[in-house]
Design brief:
The protein has 123 residues and is α+β, with helices and mostly antiparallel strands. Helices cover 18% and strands 37% of the residues.
């Protein structure tokens, strides 16, 4: 009995020391001396890195599917860069699309064409 209570007291003391170390894992703030603090992100002396121009390319996407009984759907989409500002923040792209249903019990549909533009501003 006395042997078990001795282990219980030692275990309780170790648990208190270990739990206090977990509760306060950081050093005492009074011991930390930082004479040269680092600049904040919003300070006026913060170095601003200019945007890099991104080389944009022509894009062509297509798809389709179906069966011989129901017919096939076909679609194509294109996007081409038209203009980009000197710093690369503003850009304008031209877009175009084509879609048509081919075959099946109702035959071919009329082709559907589309065109448009996309303006992009990068923050």
């Amino acid at each position: 009995m006395q042997f078990a209570s001795c282990f219980l007291l030692i275990g309780l003391a170790c648990a208190c020391v270990f739990s206090s170390a977990l509760a306060y894992p950081y050093p005492d703030p009074r011991d930390i001396v930082n004479l040269t603090p680092e600049p904040l992100a919003y300070s006026p002396n913060f170095d601003v890195v200019p945007l890099q121009r991104v080389r944009r390319q022509f894009q062509l996407n297509g798809g389709g599917g179906g069966s011989s009984k129901q017919g096939f759907d076909l679609n194509l989409n294109a996007r081409a860069p038209v203009w980009q500002s000197q710093n690369g923040r503003h850009s304008f792209d031209a877009t175009g699309s084509y879609a048509q249903h081919l075959g099946g019990p109702y035959g071919n549909s009329r082709p559907q064409f589309g065109a448009g533009g996309v303006y992009t501003y990068r923050f």
